[in-house]
Structures are given as C-alpha cells and as structure tokens.
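Narrative of activities, Objective 1.

The group set out to show that a structural description can be obtained from nothing but a protein's sequence at a throughput compatible with the screening campaign. Below is one input-output pair from the validation batch, recorded exactly as produced.
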Amino acid sequence: MTARVETEAVERYRDAVRDAATLPDIGALADARVCVAGFTGQVGSALVRVLTEANWSTLAARPAHITGIARRARGPAPEGIDAVYADVADPNGSFSPHDYTHVFYAVGVTSDYQSRPADVIASQLVGLQWFLDRVDRRCRFVFVSSARVYGRHSVDEALSEESLAAVTPMHLDNLYDSAKRLAESLCLWHSEKRGVNATVLRAGNLYGLDAPQSATSVSELVREAAATGRITLTGSPFSLRNYCCVVDFAQGLLRAATRETPGRAYNIGSTEHLTTQELAHAIVGCFAGPIEIVAPSAPPPPSYQRLSLDRARVELGYAPQLRMHDVLPAVVAEIVAALPA
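Output recorded for this entry:
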C-alpha cells in the first residue's frame, strides 16, 4: 500500500463528508440544539465530523449547537463541540436530554459485546430508557440499531425492515442482538404511547476514519493482521454481510432526523455485500507484507445478511456513495498507526 493510495482514500472520505454536509436536509438543523450521545465512537465521530463541516458551510449563518456525550475522553474534543463526559445510564447525570431538538443515540459496545455484557445492558436498555423518558416529545430522536436484529439467516435473500428474525434463544449473540431488539421496542413504545418522534436505523457492518480505537468487525481483523501477521476466520468464510462506510450511515442519520418518521425503522447500509473471506482478502491487500488467512478446518454453515435499502431510498432519499475499496487503505493505515508501539 503506497502513500498515494492512502492519500486518495482520505480525499474520497473527505469528499463524502462534504457532500453529506451540504445535503438539502441539513438546512432543517439551522439553530438546532443537537445531542450526539456516543460522540467518540465510530458512528458518533463521523456524525460530528459531518455536523461541524455543515456549521462551516451550509449552516454558517445559523449554525447548530452541538453537544457530544461520552463516558470518557478519547483525546481532545473536536472544535465546535461542547463535550460532556458522563454515563448515560447514570440517573444522577449532569445533563438534561430535555434541552435538545435533535438526539442521535449512538451509545454502546460493538464487536466486544461478549466481554462487556453489563455495558450492553446499561447502554442499550437502561441509558436509552432514561433518555427517551426525558426528551421533549417534539425532539427528533434517532436510535442507532443494527442489522443483527434479524439474527442469522441460512438463506441468501434480501432482508426488509419487516423480515422476521431468525433466532436461537440460548445463544451468546443474543447479549447484543436481543438488546438491540428490545431497544427498538422501547423506541416504538415511546413513539406510540408518548408521542416521541423516535426513529430506528439498522446499520450494516460499519467502517470509517476518526475512531481507530472502536471495536468493529473490520477493525478487529486489521489489528490482528498488524499484530500477528495473520487473520483468523472464526466462522464460515462464506458468511455474507453488508459493509457500509460510516459517512454514508451519517447521511442516513441526518436524513432521518429531519423527517417526521415516528416509530419507523430503516435499513441503512450499502449496496456492497462481502463474504468474510472477501473482507479478509481486502484487508490483506492493504498491507505491504504477507498476511496469512487462517480458516477453520470444519467451518459451520454460512449465514447471510443481505440488506434491502428500498425503504430508506424511497422514504428518506438515502443514497450511499462509498465502497470499501474507496477508503479501506486509509482506514487500515489509521488503525495501525493507533496501535501501541
């Protein structure tokens, strides 16, 4: 991987940020009081980057006031952000969700959920309920869910927002997957019973810049490759997942936050579906030296997560812009650079 390739990937990412910041939908955020809960994570970092870019361009005359909430600092807060460091599950927190016109709830653990079950429950259930119970009912509330609510399907077919989940009741995946399903039901309850304008966005597997410490399926494989010279595939090499650049997901968040869509759920991903083996090869191609891919000798049957984006395209005007090869070299370089020496 050359410096030129990395630079080009960074530029494509920046162009996508600028495009998202100049969407016509952004005008609805003029003078808004925006809260990004989880602003230091993968989703929150991308959203903050787009919002601050919009404040310099589209919203320059009437910028949005942006508050970021995170449990702890991960370096200096971006310029133009009021950072609040607090636990969203703490009922004695020093902030009031009632103050915001728009809330993006992107709090929680990702691929490291099996080592942090208490944090999954605190963020996806306790903290979410606390937020929803206290936001102004006129607030536009957008919850970041996951395509993992659909479970693991054995047939490769498009999953719409009405598809049924394929779930094994006793399974460790449910620590995360079922927490997201219950969180979505909390959003629906507050929408139907209290009139909160709560919308759910189901993310595919995300990747992007600005949060190299995040634990995602992509970042974990990159770290293993850099540290050990190999990538270990623990499931079926032929399992299929949707992969979405987090800037495109931020576009979906902003489109959802500027529309009246209470109690509605949307798949927000890309047109790109890769097997685990294809993802591993894409990551290997970003390293200068050899990386071994180790597949299980007796892999389980593959599972499939092929997302339909039809509802988001029609109702939100969502249109993903980036593919993995556009930005992966920059993503890999950033994650590797952040590793301990």
